[in-house]
Design goal:
Blueprint: H1 19-25, H2 27-30, H3 37-40, E1 49-50, H4 51-63, H5 75-82, H6 90-105, E2 109-112, E3 123-124, E4 127-128, E5 139-142, H7 144-159, E6 170-176, E7 183-187, H8 198-209, E8 223-231, E9 233-240, H9 253-270, E10 275-281, E11 285-288, H10 305-317, E12 323-330, E13 336-338, E14 344-346, H11 353-368, E15 372-377, H12 382-395, E16 399-401, H13 407-417
Length: 424
Amino acid sequence: MRFIKYGKYTGEPADAIDLEELVKRLGNFFLQSGFESQFYGISQMDPQRSMEALREAILRALQEGDLLPDNAMSDELREMLNDPNAMNSEAVKDLLDKLTERLANEGFINPQQPPQVTPPPHTSARGQLGQPQDRTEARFEITDKTIDFLGFKTLQDLLGSLGRSSFGRHDTRDLATGVESGGVSRPYEFGDTLNLDISETLFNAVRREGAKVPIEMTYSDLMVHQCEYQSSCATVVMLDCSHSMILYGEDRFTPAKRVAMALSHLIRTQYPGDTLSLVLFHDSAEEVPLSELARVQVGPFYTNTREGLRMAQRILLRQKKDMRQIVMITDGKPSALTLEDGRIYKNAFGLDPFVVGQTLEEVNKCKRAGIMINTFMLASDYSLVNFVQKITRMCRGKAYFTTPYTLGQYLLMDYMSRKTKQIR
């Protein structure tokens, strides 16, 4: 008689890895802003990453530990992962290929196969031809699902120390009619939400006509509850992408992108009546769709703050909101201007009086339009403090002198609390 012996199925190691945790660990790789290009070559500036670079990033995440459960990893596989030549192991290559396949199947990445090129024959009527060139390397793009997930995770991490916010509203000192009562009732006026205060309405009718049945009510008897009036806000994030954001041994641009993604997720889920736009400023300025935020990288060298303010104003003046504000994230002084003929005036040495004067004039236009500017400065240069304080005083905004590590906490606290305080 034949016997079949069954053992416990442990599954593939690649199936035991939590993909969301893996994507979170790969966040810096997916969002890299050109910082590594200073050390690894200009090809790293390409926003479409290669599949080989992705496999290397996954391997680094695995070598950090905690991704693979102990019961899913054999001693042999553990030794292979820790080997400096791990990429040469067939078992490791197979594991990385399966993980990239899972990322694609779950919609986190979108693989793009290289074009198929038929090589020419090695010989022709005119003689020997050169060897065919290697095929273009396969690449991938991150999907909107990954961008949204990374924004959510960043927001979740930041809100852990900030507490819970109200859902979808900005509280003010004013009262209005609504669903949630927050004050004494008042007579109904045309256009109010018909959130009747039944007891007060009936009392008015009884007081006027006396206690009798049926109770006859008139228009003047109607009383409605009041609730706190919650305003809507239009926000433009001005993100400095000049070259200094990745210089001096520190990547400031990637944390700034993370915070902007978290703010986008916060507004979409908690403040649905608000709007958020993104403006990048460098030698000039440009509006970028929020869906492209994770893919943008550091641009040219100079900082054209005035052009960024101009574009932000054009965006905000189209918005019919109660509050309009600019959130400016930068690490340097204004060093460029767009002249009337389209040429760009540049001066990176010190605070150029011409550049500063024109920039402050644009700030004054924001003030006259009722647009508040909150500045998040990722540097502590003494020469910049006076300039930022002038912007703050002119627009009754706030100035935050922070670091890439505390930027998110300050920005989200400012957005949710709306308190008039200045952190220095």
